[in-house]
Amino acid sequence: MMVGGFLEFILGNTFPFVVFMSFGAFWLTFASTLQPFYYAYASYAPAGEPEAAGISTVGFTASFAFFLLFMGVLCFVYLICSLRTNVVFVVIFFTLVPAFGLLAGAYWQNALAIGTGDLSHAETAHRCQVAAGAFTFVTSMAGWWIFLAIMLAALDFPFQLPVGDLSTMIKGASEKRKAKENMV
Q: Which of helix, strand or coil describes residue 165?
């Protein structure tokens, strides 16, 4: 995703550049959080316990939820921006917003389960994860749809897949300014 982001930057495509780079950074950060080398969860380990014990503490689990929550906020910003692109991008970001919210909720429910010992919180966390999985399945299918649409268009295939162009639905600021100047 980072390489794709750099290539979008070279092409001058600002929106895909920002989306690819932020998601690339998200995946790198997520991966490094789970690598013992970076000591992200080890600092939460109770004294005298192995470093791996930190990953199942209330502190780590509850704080990690904020990482996912704010990725959902970022996807909400992308959702608003995608309203001038196409329906497939709107679907992608529309499904990612609740998916990240549900994943954050799952981490918070797990933190409650760890902190209180009440297993009903763990069951709720599981349901949140399953629901997030359903949303991300729709995200994935929309991603495959636009990938196939782009590939067919790039190869000038005899048929094209519709993506639902929205660029004419909401007028851009420059278009509004130009229309206003033409009226005067």
A: strand
